[in-house]
């Protein structure tokens, strides 16, 4: 029988000071380890402002200053770390990349954001990641403590096909570092996490940055865990906070046994080709 898994959702406030952001992340990782969490999870672009025009200024190759320090912190604190995401430089390309390290500081997974956030909502928000970023092309799963995880970054959650593929490939938990704004956050953040959880009978873990009211792009916050029935287990507000949530992986199997959605699919009528 799998033991309950303790997650630490590190909703940190991000500033323009990259080193200050990294040090704050390290502080939260140590705090998570002191609380006996198994995994510490950081938000999307945890080491700099969410602004496509300045992404190149914060870009780094892997391994680089941010990922090296987080891998070291994972090993020192004996805790797995989902390093939110950073702007990863690969030759002439920049990616919005999430790195996962185990409790020995070894790389478990890397997910490059597949769907770039390009939106134009007149009078509300205009943002184009594609101005500076390239899209990833891999679907990402990893295993830790005999539990299978899916990994996505923010806008990836909008596409139900991705979550379904992760579930079909065995994911019991899907982790999503994100950075919804004050337009999309109130409308979609909780709705998306609960919907993906219910559709695929998985735990959904969304970790946002805390709100910083100085930048033009303001984060919604409200980091959250939902169970396979779509119930909200824990939710933050907009402030900097560490949230702890203990999840029972057996609940995923229980949901799929009692209401076998994946088995009830009519693959004679429709199917995913991937």
Describe this structure in words.
With 274 residues, the protein is of the alpha/beta class. It has a single domain, classed as Nitrilase/N-carbamoyl-D-aminoacid amidohydrolase (4-Layer Sandwich). It has helices spanning 18-34, 55-58, 65-77, 160-168, 184-200, 250-258, and strands at residues 5-11, 39-41, 80-82, 86-90, 93-101, 107-112, 118-121, 125-128, 140-144, 147-151, 173-177, 203-207, 224-226, 232-235, 241-247. Strands 1, 2, 3, 4, 5, 6 and 15 form a 7-stranded mixed beta sheet that branches. A 6-stranded mixed beta sheet has the order 9-10-11-12-13-14, with helices on one face. Strands 7-8 form a two-stranded antiparallel ribbon. Helix 1 (18-34) links the parallel strand 1 (5-11) and strand 2. Helix 1 (18-34) runs parallel beside helix 3 (65-77). The two termini are 32 Å apart.
Which key phrases capture this entry?
274 residues, alpha/beta, Nitrilase/N-carbamoyl-D-aminoacid amidohydrolase, 7-stranded mixed β-sheet, 6-stranded mixed β-sheet, 6 helices, 15 strands
């Amino acid at each position: 029988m799998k033991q309950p898994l303790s997650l630490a959702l590190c909703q940190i406030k991000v500033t323009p000071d990259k080193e200050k952001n990294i040090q704050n992340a390290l502080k939260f990782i140590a705090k998570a380890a002191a609380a006996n969490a198994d995994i510490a999870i950081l938000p999307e672009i945890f080491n700099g402002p969410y602004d496509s025009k300045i992404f190149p200024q914060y870009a780094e190759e892997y391994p680089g200053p941010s990922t090296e320090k987080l891998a070291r912190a994972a090993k020192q604190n004996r805790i797995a770390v989902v390093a939110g995401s950073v702007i990863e430089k690969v030759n002439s390309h920049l990616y919005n990349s999430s790195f996962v390290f185990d409790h020995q500081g070894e790389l478990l997974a890397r997910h490059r954001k597949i769907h770039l956030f390009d939106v134009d909502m007149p009078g509300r928000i205009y943002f184009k990641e594609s101005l500076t970023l390239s899209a990833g092309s891999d679907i990402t799963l990893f295993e830790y403590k005999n539990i299978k995880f899916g990994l996505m970054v923010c806008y990836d959650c909008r596409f139900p096909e991705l979550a379904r593929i992760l579930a079909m490939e065995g994911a019991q938990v899907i982790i999503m570092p994100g950075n919804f704004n004050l337009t999309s956050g109130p409308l979609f953040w909780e709705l998306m996490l609960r919907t993906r959880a219910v559709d695929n009978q998985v735990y959904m873990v969304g970790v946002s940055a805390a709100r910083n009211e100085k930048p033009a792009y303001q984060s919604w916050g409200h980091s959250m865990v939902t169970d396979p029935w779509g119930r909200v287990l824990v939710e933050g507000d907009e402030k900097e906070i560490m949230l702890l949530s203990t999840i029972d992986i057996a609940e995923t199997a229980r949901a799929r046994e009692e209401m076998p959605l994946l088995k009830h699919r009519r693959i004679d009528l429709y199917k995913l080709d991937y």
